[in-house]
Design brief:
This protein has three domains: 65 residues, Winged helix-like DNA-binding domain superfamily/Winged helix DNA-binding domain (Arc Repressor Mutant, subunit A, Orthogonal Bundle); 103 residues, 3-Layer(aba) Sandwich (D-Maltodextrin-Binding Protein, domain 2); 104 residues, 3-Layer(aba) Sandwich (D-Maltodextrin-Binding Protein, domain 2), CATH 3.40.190. The strands form two sheets. Strands 3, 4, 5, 6, 7, 8, 9, 10 and 11 form a nine-stranded mixed β-sheet that branches. It has a two-stranded antiparallel ribbon with strand order 1-2. Helices cover 43% and strands 22% of the residues. The mean pLDDT is 92. The protein contains eleven helices and eleven strands. The structure holds 2-phosphoglycolic acid (PGA).
């Protein structure tokens, strides 16, 4: 049996992870932030790695950090090693099954409040020991959280294309224009958006998919809507419309009670309902954790 190459001591996975963060960011401070470590500890780990391998990996001349030739070669190997380690960990997790796993879901406001909790509840009843969490955010935050691994999957509309993200359709949604039951336009047919130009519109916060869809429709109809107030939730908007503060566009999924009771009335306006689709978004990887794969199947089966 021959000895392996002579290194002073074994290289650790932590050192490789730290090196990859520095080599990717080309910054000790940004890498430290990403890893949740202090900058001196990041520098120390890279120095240890260099001394273990007997090569300089980074050129620290001047303000900028650059990779040496050895650094470039190791960066490629280190990424492959760490990917394989992640895959091995995942394979073990899948063998343990989903019962002791965790499931961290994210969703945009409307689907996250009106659709996902029931789906998560049903899934949790099937797998009572699974630790489940749900984060509500806007679409950009959700994409970032999926990419960083802070959540396992997210549900939102119209995801931006990203080669690292796998996207599959989940559920159709309709955005409808609603007014209070006693509004002058209630019950009128075949209205145009221009007929509502003098109405006070209540709009969702910046970053909301509903808001973007309404703005896009108004732009394409060449209509300037009078926005009277911005409110950060569907519930606040529904209360404000009921209170006579204005009209609004809201997902049908958020309106079942109000429409059934007749508190709010859907208007018949050209271009409405605006149709959109919620998608399931997760990291594109060969294996998904068992709980994530199970929940994705559960969501798809329910539509
Ligand atoms: P929202 O949802 O309309 O509640 O902001 C965002 C989306 O997924 O479109």
């Amino acid at each position: 049996m021959t000895d392996g190459p002579k290194v002073e001591r074994q290289v650790t996975f932590n050192e490789l992870r730290t090196f990859v963060a520095v080599a990717t960011q080309l910054s000790f401070s940004v890498a430290a932030q990403d890893l949740g470590l202090t900058q001196p500890s990041v520098s120390y780990q890279v120095k240890e790695l260099e001394s273990a391998l007997g090569v300089a990996l980074l050129d620290r001349a001047g303000k900028r950090v650059t990779l040496t030739e050895a650094g470039r070669v190791l960066h490629d190997y280190a990424r492959r090693i760490l990917n394989l380690l992640d895959e091995a960990t995942l394979a073990m997790e899948r063998l343990r099954g989903m019962e002791r796993g965790t499931l961290r879901v994210g969703a945009s406001t409307t689907v996250g409040i009106y659709v996902i909790p029931a789906a998560l509840g049903a899934f949790k009843r099937l797998h009572p020991d699974l630790a489940v969490s749900l984060k509500i955010g806007n679409r950009q935050q959700l994409a970032e959280q999926v990419l960083s691994g802070a959540i396992d999957l997210a549900v939102y509309s119209d995801p931006a294309r990203d080669p690292e993200l796998a996207v599959s359709p989940f559920m159709d949604d309709e955005l409808v224009l609603v007014v209070p039951a006693d509004h002058a336009l209630a019950g009128r047919h075949r209205l145009r958006l221009a007929d509502l130009q003098t109405e006070s519109f209540l709009t969702r916060e910046l970053g909301s998919g509903t808001r973007e869809a309404v703005e896009a429709l108004a732009r394409s109809a060449g209509v300037q809507l009078a926005v009277a107030m911005e409110l950060g939730s569907n519930s606040a908007i529904k209360q404000a419309v009921k209170g006579g503060l204005g009209v609004a566009v809201i997902s049908r999924h958020a309106l079942s009670l109000e429409l059934a009771r007749g508190d709010l009335v859907e208007l018949d306006v050209a271009g409405f309902p605006i149709r959109r689709q919620w998608s399931i978004v997760h990291l594109r990887r060969r294996l998904l954790p068992a709980a994530v794969e199970g929940f994705v199947e559960h969501l798809r089966a329910g539509t």
